[in-house]
Gustatory receptor
Amino acid sequence: MQTYHFRLLLILHIVFVVSVIYALTVWCHLLKITVLQSFILGSVIDIYYEFLVVILLNTLINNFGSRYRDLNTKLIKIRSTSSLNELRHVVQNYRLLGESIDLFNEMFAFQILLIILHCGLQAVGCLDIIYTLNLQFEGMLIHNLSVLGLIIWCLAMIIIPIESSHREIEKFLELSCEIQHRANEDTKEWEIATILKDYAENFKREFTADEFLKINKRLILSIIGSVTTYFIIAVQFNSIH
């Protein structure tokens, strides 16, 4: 597993370096500037920092999803064995996971907001350049299309694992309700199953940017709508001038 993640990280860095080198070459040729000037104007260091933050967020969110999958696997086994000790252990782990997501939302709220904002602005800029370019310079067209691809990749690296984690959380809630229904009332098993169900409902967490917005698949439609609106405004502004 570690070898797989190392290879994946290496491939992502190779793709990033190739994209940056191509972008620098395009800007050098278009603006008639040196590679160093293109490096500074292109804010490569800032883009690389954002690239690393996206990978970090993806890794953390995937870990949350895998932990919830492990809990769901344990619940399925508990459903057939009715082990009280394992049920208590699952309750504690679920509560800790909920608190961990709260910490994640607080720590990375502004990073996520800035990444979403930057992706939206970059998308508007790329679409505007592609529209006004009229295929005059093929290198610039390819560069902007590649940037759009990287924007889609950044958003997918954050939103797709979040949606997967949300599905595992919903599955945990369904399994806890099923275990409670199967348990006999006025027994120790039923008491712990009730606590499990209450915890599943009370510690059900969603990924948010510190409650500024909920991060889920609906966010993609919001971004597309905002990008389309500002792209139309940019086109109208350029046509006037």
Notes: The CA atoms of residues 37 and 128 lie 24 Å apart. The chain has two domains: 1-42, 43-240. The chain has eight helices and no strands.
